[in-house]
Amino acid sequence: MATPLSSGPLASATAPGSTDPRLILREEELDSGLELLLLAEAALWAAVDAALDGEGPGLGRSHWRAAFLLRRRPGIGVQDLSKLTSLSKQAASKTLTDLQRLNLAEKLAGDLDARRRPTALTAEGLAFEARVSERLRALLGRAYRTGGLDGVAGTRRILAALAGPRQGVGLSRRDGL
Hints:
The chain has about 180 residues and is mainly α. It has seven helices and four strands. Helices cover about 60% and strands about 5% of the residues. The strands form two sheets. It has a two-stranded antiparallel sheet with strand order 1-2.
């Protein structure tokens, strides 16, 4: 028999003061949510893979993911990319180096530390990111319309709670945080 889970990571992962004490989550409900997240992730990556098929050799999921994050958080470097994606620093460095080699990204001058050089997308990199992301925005748009107006805000709150502190990584340069 599933036990109620009224505390734990998901119950406390919402914004301060916004937890609903009436919400009791059972193992089956949490497992169903995990299953849906895994299936949704597979659908998103399938859309990325389909878009990448037309981009030529040498570009994979990590390249698009880095390009997307560089567009959303200009100036991130290896360390931030590693934190945001859970790639090792070596894998994040290789991904950024690949993007530079393909003229999709460029290193910028560092603010204080010459060893930490932020990366930005080139015009070609912005076009690459846009072509792949267009498919994902369409997929997400259809899903949001299915969920309705209330579903969009609820979904964003849930995903933000799951993303946790990663949301702030790499934003301080752009947003003055």
